[in-house]
Amino acid sequence: MARAAPLRFLLLLPPLLAATLGRQTNRTFEIDYEGDQFLKDGKPFRYISGSIHYSRIPRFYWKDRLLKMKMAGLNTIQTYVPWNFHEPLPGLYQFSGDQDLEYFLQLADELGLLVILRPGPYICAEWDMGGLPAWLLEKQSIVLRSSDLDYLKAVHSWLGVLLPKVKPYLYQNGGPIITVQVENEYGSYFTCDYNYLRFLLNLFHHHLGKDVVLFTTDGADEEYLMCGTLQGLYATVDFGTSVNIIEAFQIQRKFESKGPLVNSEFYTGWLDHWGEPHQKVDTQKIVNSLTDMLAHGANVNLYMFIGGTNFAYWNGANMPYAAQPTSYDYDSPLTEAGDLTEKYFALREAIGKFEKLPEGIIPPSTPKFAYGKVAMEKVNTVEDSLDVLCLAGPINSTYPLTFVQVKQYFGFVLYRTTLPKNYNEPVPLSSFLDGVRDRAYVSVNGVPQGILERSKVLVINITGEAGATLDLLVENMGRVNYGRHNNDFKGLISNLTLGSDILTDWSIFPLDMESAVQNNLISNEMVTSDSFTSTLPTFYTGQFFIPSGIPDLPQDTYIQFPNWTKGQVWINGFNLGRYWPGRGPQVTLYVPSHILVTSAPNNITVLELEGSPCNFQKKCYVEMVDKPVLDGPLS
């Protein structure tokens, strides 16, 4: 019976994985300290890798993007595992569809690509809260990324689910994973808790075994590596074109006197923030730096090789508070939509001077189609849609509660109270402790009063009579992903004052936008009045058909919002993300073809938060275009 157990186990596995496990003998990946190199199956090996985040690319396009990376000459890809992407609620694990990490690893293996896995638990990645789930903040005093017992308990549970899933995909077990990162840029975090790193090291060894190569990554600064490294974890550095390569690797050598030189994040571009210019990094500088590193025999990961998209609410933010936009194009060699660029071919040529490029055809850029203008109609305001947006009704509290206190982790919460007395003259509504996280759209009896914005607008003046309804629709714009402010609470995190009065007796509505949109609860039948002002947060809907008689449709497209201001957009229930042409620089949002349908009309739902063109022109529209605009004008 004991001998039969492994066979029964293999029969339960997918065929590809069973075959993978069947070829696990005599495969090794290790560090050769004396030779200052990696050894793969006993032979010297140097990886040239590129970063791709499966969480930012629809599963539909994973193979296309991975194949383009291989054809660029990469022998390895690097990816993060965002904890909050897979465990949205404690104990609720999601590993299917666009979250099917194992399928992604299998695809890489099928294509002959090795994998560097970065499972965190913290990843940064310009991803909401650096990949840490917001429900950790339900313990308000929790110290993230430390030996805080509640944090360790959650990490222990999560890695106890994740790491056994990836163990079969380790190189020595027949899979593609050659190295695994523990934590991420920990030396940049304030806790500097070596016991926490030891806890992780032991946990990774427990689940993955002692043969796996574990490593850390930190900025090429001695101060960062002091707190970011630990014996038993191979120390690597990250840096871009502005850093002296020799000096950067000398920093690594102070902590790893022998072993391979590794730049775990060589920056091919840079991230954007709303209201700041679109970032670009010169192609020739990248080629020159990459050539120099490869000439020194270094192992390099190009971050990013393809950036992808922050669909829905997944973008992060930096401090002083600045949220990242929906696009994570990153000025990468492959665009957000997976298109080939001049930078792609320049880097491919540079890599080809050191490694034999694969033979075959490079997959072309995916075609784009301009479906044209789509007429939009007013549906209803958020205030008048509360019956479908908050089916359970409000939570009542004397003082405001945060998003996590009402178990609303993303999106929007409406806070409602009444004015305690008459304010015939304008009176300041104040958030002196910067307690609005991150934007609050304020109205009194359905009349817009203004917007409070984190770190920017802490006071607006309002008027109203005693007993009038004061509403604040608060938007979570994305949690801080880097630095000591990861514990980024959202909503009204402190009291608001009206004049000299502290406002109390709140009704708090957590809004389930996703269910309402996906179930078509936002419909034209809800209209209560044609006279409401569109400067209140308002839903709009429209439809378009895929043209018939044109082959190969549907194709990818982009949606833009002429004369719209700021909001959220869904197509066929799929949350594309935030648009904000009113602030820039991103103007268009990427629409992948797999969410479009040919057999029925495609439904567009827009939540405009500030002001649409529909109130000053008879016809208003959004437009589907075939070219992206990521460097538009700034407000």
Report on the structure:
Residues 1-16, 18-22 and 526-534 have low confidence and may be disordered. Strand 24 and strand 25 (501-502) form a beta hairpin. The chain starts with a helix and ends in a 10-residue tail after the last strand. 20% of the residues lie in helices and 26% in strands. An eight-stranded parallel beta barrel has the order 4-5-6-7-8-9-10-11, surrounded by five helices. An eight-stranded antiparallel beta sheet has the order 30-29-32-27-14-33-28-31. It contains 13 helices and 33 strands.
Describe the global form.
globular
Radius of gyration: 26 Å
For the termini, the CA-CA separation is 71 Å
Arithmetic mean of pLDDT: 94
Number of strands: 33
**How many alpha or pi helices?**
13
Strand order of the largest sheet: 4-5-6-7-8-9-10-11
Helix content: 10-25%
Q: What's the main sheet like?
A: 8 strands, parallel, barrel
Helical/strand content category: alpha+beta
Strand content: 25-35%
Low-confidence stretches: 1-16, 18-22, 526-534
